[in-house]
Amino acid sequence: MSLQTEKDFLEKNRQEIIDLEKKLTACPAIAPEGNGDGESKKCAILEAWLREKGFTNIEHYDAPDSRVSSGIRPSLVVTIPGKSDDYNIWVMAHMDVVPTGDLSLWDSDPWTVVEKGGKLIGRGVEDNQQGLVSAAFAGLYYIQNKITPSHTIKLLFVADEENGSQYGIIYLIKNHHLFKKEDLILIPDGGDPKGETIEIAEKNILWLSVHVIGKQTHGSRPDSGANACLAADDLALRLHKLEKFFDKTDDLFEPNYSTIQPTKRLKNVDSINIIPGEDNFCMDCRILPCYSLASVLSQVDKVCRDIENEYGVKVEYTTPQKSESPATPVQAPVAQKLAQALKTVHGIEAKFIGIGGGTVGAELRREGIDAVVWSTLDDQAHQPNEYCIVDNLIKDSQTLIEFFR
């Protein structure tokens, strides 16, 4: 293998790469939470393409889900046997996409790829089909050139990344023993325009859904009720001020501090002259890993009790999402191998970072398996007129070819 041979292979397949993006985009794979029918049809298209191109070792891992017409949420594992399997080298991409959002914000049909100025425009072309297609063509390089990699390659195409992964990676971890702690796992689902940042850590995520219960009354008689809206307003501000309580910083992340932000608010009453007896709001908390979520929730409980005592209300809350995970060490083999591939292929000096968002990498790290997140992209995820730069996809595919060595 040589870098030029790899590059020539990918350039020769440029139109094939574009065509696969078009095929996948034309089959929406939206979860039931977004009023979709899941990934089965898209998975079938992908599997047919893989078999047509010579991939033969393909396994299904299907999570039952009665909400979709097929009854399952499929994940595929494509294996390219290596000289050794004392550890496997994985690339994991997801097949599902988010809904289009407001169609008036799109300049074209989201499900029909438009080629413009070296870009492919359409829902899912970047998130996560850039990673999926780059992995597929990196694997295809080994298949078509009859090259046996030094270690077994595993391409994992999962379901349900966009809505919590219960039918995707979490299902696989709970029900199948696919991964060894020695495995190297790369997730091409986040990055930067230069492709130089390797994500090795995530802030702990805590979502709060808060319900304040007071006593409804007429707008002119606050003395006869308990204003749930007023209590909720004060509570949201006090919870936000916990950012100053959990005040440590970590320059691995941007921003480098913990954030505790009020977000969604539900409707309370229908008229201006009604003091509400109930109010509901949400908080999105992204906490530096140096703090446990248990310590955060302890302070949340204290603030809630103070509000109850001051306003004569009752405060209840749930945690729709609560996630903690350790970091992948900078010196972990997967991090160093990817950094070396970037330097070898593109002359890039990798930068290791943490992020505030959540990825499926956290699920693996909680199992003691090191994983990194990386790609070369403009971060178009979930936006109208989402696009993928074809040159970035090809660049990433060549990086993966080197990463698989």
Describe the model.
The chain has 405 residues and is an alpha/beta fold. Helices cover 32% and strands 25% of the residues. The protein has 11 helices and 17 strands. It has helices at 3-12, 14-25, 40-52, 129-144, 169-175, 228-240, 242-245, 293-311, 333-346, 361-366, 390-403, and strands at residues 58-64, 72-80, 84-94, 114-116, 119-121, 151-158, 184-187, 197-202, 204-213, 217-218, 259-265, 274-275, 278-287, 314-323, 351-355, 371-373, 387-389. Strands 1-2-6-3-7-16 form a 6-stranded mixed β-sheet, sandwiched between helices. The chain has a 4-stranded antiparallel β-sheet with strand order 11-13-9-14, covered by helices on one side. A hairpin with a 2-residue loop joins strand 4 (114-116) and strand 5. The longest helix has 19 residues, at 293-311. 44% of the residues are buried.
- Helicity range: 25-40%
> Radius of gyration in whole Å, from Cα?
24 Å
| Helix vs. strand class | alpha/beta
The major β-sheet equals: 6 strands, mixed
- Principal-axis shape equals elongated
Question: Mean pLDDT score, rounded?
Answer: 97
Terminal CA distance: 9 Å
Q: What count of helical segments does DSSP give?
A: 11
| pLDDT < 50 stretches | none
Supply database-style keywords:
elongated, 405 residues, 11 helices, alpha/beta, 6-stranded mixed beta sheet, 4-stranded antiparallel beta sheet
